[in-house]
Amino acid sequence: MPPAPHSASALAADTRALLAEFPPEEVRIEEDRFTFLEARYDAGLAAVHYPPGYGGRGLPREHQAEVYAILAAAGAPDNRPAHIIVNLGMAGPTILGAGTTEQKDRFMRRLWTGRDRWCQLFSEPGAGSDLAGLSTRAVRDGDDWVVSGQKVWTTLAHLADFAILLARTDPSVPKHQGITYFLLDMRSAGVTVQPLRQITGEAEFNEVFLDEVRIPDAMRLGEEGEGWALANLTLSNERSGSMKRPEREGGPIRTLLDTWRETPVEERDPAYRDSIARAWVRAEAVRLAGIAIHRAMAQGDPTPEASALKLASAETSKAIASLALETAEAGGLLQPDGYDFHQPDFMSVDITGRSAGYAYLRTRANSIEGGTSEVLKNIIAERILRLPREPRTDTQVPFTEVPR
Amino acid sequence: MRGLGGIDAVRDALDDLAPIRQAHRQMMDTMGLGGVLAEEERGGLGAGMAAIVALGRAAGAVPAADLLGPYVSAPVAFGMLVVGHPDAGVRSLAGDTLRRMAEGTTCVGTVAGGLLFDAELCEEVLVHQDETIHLVPRTELELTALPALDPTRTLHRVTESSVLGAGTILADGDMAAEIVGASIIAGRVYLAAELEGVARAVLAETVTFLRERIAFSRPLGSFQALKHQLAEMWSEVSLIGPLVDEAALLLDTGDDPTEAAIYAAAALSFAADTATRVCEQALQLHGGVGYTWESPVHIWLKRAAADRVRLGTPHTLRAELAALTDI
Questions:
Q1: Nearest Cα to Cα of residue A131 among A104, A117, A152
Q2: Could you tell me which of A55, A53, A162 has the C-alpha nearest to residue A116?
Q3: Distance CA B218, CA B213 (A)
Q4: Are the Cβ atoms of A281 and B318 closer than 8 angstroms?
Q5: Interface pTM (ipTM) of the complex?
Q6: B-chain residues within 8 Å CB-CB of A381?
Q7: Distance, CA of A81 to CA of A89 (rounded, Å)
Q8: What value, to the nearest 5°, has the Cα angle with vertex A236 and ends A233 and A240?
């Protein structure tokens, strides 16, 4: 591994050197792509804000753009971020932040290149917004933990090699204190994955059943009881990591405008024009706010403001997709994608170019997935506006005494 | 403006605000803010729309003297005249006026649609009338005082006949239209920033009020029904700034006037709708207190409502935007 220079000035030269050694035009099969990505990781050009030795150089995030630009111009293959959202947005940052050297060495390279795919086992049928109420149990047995419980809303679990997992290791203490964070090999005995069909007919998500699954203690991330703090680290990255730099008129507004502009200007229904212009302005406001937050975050950690933008973004997408359906082909009576059951191999968070029927249905989840709008409003009210919390009865008593 | 007593001083003096407006203007002139947009070789700061936006955000928090005419519209007009007018006499007059505005030795109001804000603070007035731009000493104009919705500023109607022959004709025809158009675009960005300042200030005041006000033996701000409203208000308000900044950037870069016009319309329509609604909600969240003259909420509400209709309304702005974006 070359010494990872801490200067940004070497980035362009090193990126070109990588391209010279591994010409993108020689990438033909999947294995070639991984070879290129591994070389990029080893050169510290995977994510420049990652530490040296783990695919980065400890530089501010903003310098990554320079690397991207050179790689994209050369037609280099990427690690297909849409297919490994959990790897990059959740597991990676959390393992980097809290993992042992052994864990980081074992997982980070395969995680970033996408050789291993990760899923997230946090939510449960009885613990969604109140995630700290989770009841999956992990009981210590020698050098192992024995884990039983049920998880839900697990994106890509059917394809995953590993999972980040929250389980309760001590029910005798208050709910937030008895949770521990684990890394789970999804091929372990006792792990069962079943698709969870959603209102679009497809199944992007799964239910995961854990039946006396043995996890070595070496796969515990952080200390016993530290799981809640680490989960917050993971989720703040989820909310911020899901915002890539968006393009103008991307997302559901694209679907809306594509149909609208098919009609000659003089035949467009004036009753809709103001609503559509209003939608355009909102979409632009959210897009520009995302870019501004992205820029601000390039220097530092995820902020509550980044979480907060998800509220506006989700509600805006839902409203615009609804208007797109109202003005769609055949009066919005169609769902051109159909309802046939299938399991996509990546998460369709970006619905640019999808039909109005699909966009309308898929965006219903935007204000639920990755933090409901209601939870985000609490985050804004309490962490940004510093308003007092609601009185709670569940945080100071042992988990076993909390009504469930 | 906070140094001059902030919103409480404005509230306490609402029945005769002239001294506070005068103090605001003097402070601004001392700071050289009349020259924000003027080039440095004309005694200005050459700071561009980014600085105008900062000024607007601060002014919205403490609504008092009208800044749009003297600090935005007039400098934009004279800035265009000084470089683009074919007559050397007009160029010289415009350059001289820019310099005096930057020094704070004159204040130029602007009249569009026959209305003039804060007439008593202006020495000179730019009047756009019958496709012609006139520069007229304020004392030459026949003015009729109007009862203004926004009590922080005075409003007068200018008698059209008093403009004719009273001053100097600076531009007409295409040039006048171009100058007025540019003043309006810059003015919209300023107003959007001022409305952002209004919305942020009224929201901050409401958050403080609800943190402190106890009812049902708890701070009102701990009730989720109210917290969620405040969170939504914050979320909406936080979307104004990015539109305003984009519009200001496009104006400062200056290479795509159509894009600048689109984002100016987007910023002002969104800021106006949002600020007005946030003020209305803030009033509701204050309960009976919010309906009193004593509460500052109505000062922000009236400024928002007045700014909302000044250079296009949210609806007419969206109609303009729709035409420019093939909607």
A1: A152
A2: A162
A3: 8
A4: yes
A5: 0.95
A6: 221, 227-228, 230-231
A7: 9
A8: 140
- Range name among A58-67, A307-316, B103-112, B263-272 with the lowest pLDDT average: A58-67
B82 token code pair:
């000084």
pLDDT tens track for A345-358: 876 667 888 899 99
Tokens representing residue A281 in the block:
């302005």
**Do B97 and B107 form a contact (C-beta atoms < 8 A)?**
no
Pairing status of strand B218-219 against strand B155-158: unpaired
C-beta atoms of A289 and B223 within 8 A:
no
Inter-chain touch A305–B243, beta carbons under 8 Å: no
Q: Which amino acid is at B305?
A: A
Residue recorded with tokens 């080039």: B39
Angle value at C-alpha B72, between B70 and B78, nearest 5 degrees: 80
For the beta carbon of residue B253, count every other beta carbon within 10 angstroms: 12
- Rounded Cα distance between B311 and A14, Å, is 53
Which residue of chain A is at minimal alpha-carbon distance from B321? A277
Residue ranges per structural domain of chain B: 176-324
For tokens 């679009």, the residue is A200
Task: Select A118-231's CATH number: 1.10.599.10, 3.40.50.1450, 2.40.110.10, 1.10.1060.10.
Answer: 2.40.110.10
Q: Which residue of A has its CA nearest to B267?
A: A281
Tokens found for residue A85: 């959202």
pTM of the model: 0.91
Task: Please indicate if any CB of chain A lies within 8 Å of the CB of B210.
Answer: yes
> What one-letter code names the amino acid at B122?
C
| pLDDT value of position A244 | 57
Question: Is the CB of B211 inside 8 Å of chain A's CB atoms?
Answer: yes
Domain B176-324 class, CATH top level: mainly alpha
Put simply, the answer to whether B231 touches A378 (Cβ < 8 Å) is yes
Within 8 A of A291 by CB-CB distance, chain B residues are 242
Helix (H) or strand (E) holding A238: helix A227-241
Residues of A marked active site are found at 238
Which two tokens mark B12? 């306490």
Q: How far is CA A200 from CA A255, A338, A362, in A?
A: 17, 8, 7
| C-alpha radius of gyration, chain B, whole number | 20
Distance of CA B235 to CAs A97, A214, A234, B62, B238, Å? 30, 44, 23, 22, 5
Question: Percent of chain B having pLDDT more than 90?
Answer: 86
Give me the architecture of the A242-384 domain, per CATH. Answer: Up-down Bundle (1.20)
Segments making up each domain of chain A, as ranges: 10-78, 118-231, 242-384
- Residue for token pair 């026959």: B114
Contact A292 B236 (CB under 8 A): no
Distance CA B140, CA B166 (A): 6
Cβ contact (<8 Å) for B238 and A376? no
Over residues A326-352, the mean pLDDT reads 86
Residues of B in contact with A386 (CB under 8 A): 207, 211
User: Residue B255, exposed/middle/buried by CB under 10 A (0-12, 13-18, 19+)?
Assistant: exposed
Distance CA(B38)–CA(B35), nearest Å, equals 5
Residue A105's CB is within 10 A of a number of other CB atoms, namely: 12
Distance (Å) from the C-alpha of residue A337 to the closest C-alpha of chain B?
26
Name every residue whose Cβ is closer than 8 Å to that of residue A328 and which is 6 or more positions away in sequence.
Answer: A255, A259, A334, A355, A356, A357
Q: Residue B139 burial by CB count (10 A; 0-12/13-18/19+): exposed, middle or buried?
A: exposed
